[in-house]
Design brief:
Largest sheet of chain B: 6 strands, mixed
Number of strands of chain A: 11
Number of helices of chain B: 0
Order of helices and strands of chain A: EEEEEEEEEEE
Largest sheet of chain A: 7 strands, mixed
Largest interface: A-B, 32 and 31 residues
Distance between the termini of chain B: 25 Å
Strand content of chain A: over 45%
Strand content of chain B: over 45%
Radius of gyration of chain A: 13 Å
Oligomer: heterodimer
Distance between the termini of chain A: 37 Å
Helix content of chain B: under 10%
Helix content of chain A: under 10%
Shape of chain B: globular
Radius of gyration of chain B: 14 Å
Chain lengths: 113, 112
């Protein structure tokens, strides 16, 4: 099976702009989770979707949002970008609602200038 | 892309030796634990997982040990190889869907 794919791989945005990142899970996986990775804060959970429903949300401001489509693909959106949003955004998928092993994609490297 | 902080603990081992990476977890209610390996420019790669009803689980060249009494998790890598050089993260789940709480990571460096 193909692994988790994320697009785009790299992105440069300006403060105040918004951005949408996309994640396609492994075929047959219905759960998608998003994480933010920075040198200072490490890996932090953003949100989790299962069958198009958000099941958990991490401690991030409302500027961070996401959704999941009927084919399990997911998008996350960050509005009014801040310099501190520069990070590697990782998507992970798993077959069920968990807890179980999750498989990560390569991430989207977002740079905010 | 960069995956780690500037001041990660580092474990340096000789090729062929065994490695032990330790992790202290925070939530006594956590019931699922997982180890990931992350190489530069890549996403975390699943290594091995364990549920709280077990103390030990073995995979290919890797063993995870869980001590719930002291909330400690360890990853043992047998016959460490240069390809094992990476940052290793432990993560815990306290029965909250697939939400994982990650540790800060340990950098493993293997000397040939």
């Amino acid at each position: 099976k193909a692994g988790v794919t994320q697009t785009p791989r790299y992105l440069i945005k300006t403060r105040g702009q918004q951005v949408t990142l996309s994640c396609s899970p492994i075929s047959g996986h219905r759960s998608v989770s998003w994480y933010q990775q920075t040198p200072g804060q490490g890996l932090q959970f953003l949100f989790e979707y299962f069958s198009e429903t958000q099941r958990n949300k991490g401690n991030f401001p409302g500027r961070f949002s996401g959704r999941q489509f009927s084919n399990s693909r997911s998008e996350m959106n960050v509005s009014t970008l801040e310099l501190g949003d520069s990070a590697l955004y990782l998507c992970a998928s798993s077959e069920t609602a968990g807890p179980e092993r999750q498989y990560f994609g390569p991430g989207t490297r977002l740079t905010v200038t | 892309g960069e995956s780690v902080g500037l001041h990660l603990p580092t474990l340096s081992v000789q090729e062929g030796d065994n490695s032990i990476i330790n992790c202290a977890y925070s939530n006594s209610a956590s019931d699922y634990f997982i180890w990931y390996k992350q190489e530069s420019g890549k996403g975390p790669q699943f290594i091995i997982d364990i549920r709280s009803n077990m103390d030990k689980r073995q995979g290919q060249r890797v063993t995870v040990l869980l001590n719930k009494t002291v909330k400690h998790l360890s990853l043992q890598i047998a016959a460490t190889q240069p390809g094992d050089s990476a940052v290793y993260f432990c993560a815990e789940n306290n029965n909250a869907g697939n939400m994982l709480t990650f540790g800060g990571g340990t950098r493993l460096m293997v000397k040939p």
